[in-house]
Give the backbone structure.
Amino acid sequence: MNKKSTYDQPDSRGHFGKFGGKYIPETLIPAVEELERVYLEAQTDKDFQAEFQRLLREYSGRPTPLYHARRISRELGFDVYLKREDLNHTGAHKINNTLGQILLARRMGKTRIVAETGAGQHGVATATAAACFDLPCVVYMGDVDIQRQRLNVFRMKLLGAEVRAVHSGSKTLKDAVNEAIRDWVANVESTHYLIGSVVGPHPYPMIVRDFQAVIGEEVKEQFPTFSLGKTDPDWLVACVGGGSNSIGLFHPYLDTDVKMVGVEAAGLGINTNQHAATINCGSYGILHGSASYLLQTREGQVVLPHSISAGLDYPGVGPEHSHLKDSGRVKYVAVTDDDAINAFNWLCEKEGILPALESAHALSFLRQEDNGIKSGDTVVVCLSGRGDKDVETVATIMEQKS
Ligand SMILES: Cc1ncc(COP(=O)(O)O)c(C=O)c1O
């Protein structure tokens, strides 16, 4: 698990500055307290750690490579290294967290798993871990996401999970989380809610971050092997939905002076009301059990977000990101649907890699003229997932444009 750094968040009550905490119904308090206790015990339990490391290595295929993307580097005039989370088993970073949480669920004696999913990657990773540990699994997914991520819906079913369609609200990730929480409240004795990002009540944002910190920890070991005369890259760049792949990359570097950029989804543009740029455009509020930035009206009604990418289509964001924004440690920008699609095509053609549309947002930042990256800089981008799940979406858009 993650090495200790001088960066010491959250506090003992789960606050990252004014963000975080646990705003949940009374019935869930014992469950999150048990989760925190079991997690803290597991951190110092050698057997738990050995099994987690074994699963990451043997089952998921870690460490994932750090790849010097030479063709795009030549074009851009600075050096780009892709952290290949797409090469994990199931095709995204989500498996890092699900393997850790499934071990915690087993340690707590839970016999059933519920999860939410947007892009389907977390649903697939959870269904996979549940199959591996012989636990029944229900995945909630918004109807809109079911339509645009059909491949992942079928994968979850093949893995033995029950996919429950959510027809309320915007029929996307926010609504799937609402339903998963409802199920958890009703079945809390037997059920572990396996949250897929650094969101939700304390201790989830901390636990998911720590399980995902393997991304940045590996980069810390891999980057110096390129013999560039540098210990650390100049920049880290990652897309931000709930915020787990980005915090996983950033966290081990927070007490260095490496520049960090989180890339949100600007959808049709941040000046429209069709985006999911929560940190850039949101305000302080409470959603799904914690305080963070949130897309909401003046009256506190959650605004329906929009992104071409199901995994970024969420009106909230992990509380630690809101804190990192306010402290100025991380810069947050936003990239439109169109620019993400262009970056998707660019990586396919230039490097022979199909990125997830989520990851394409991070890649697109590299092409922004005013991004501040200087010639000769080194940039590590988290390629959070592979794009097979998005091929249908991209094909439809390309057909519409031709
Ligand atoms: C491939 C991929 N990248 C990124 C994300 C965004 O999530 P997070 O911000 O938690 O990494 C998702 C979410 O589904 C995803 O599937």
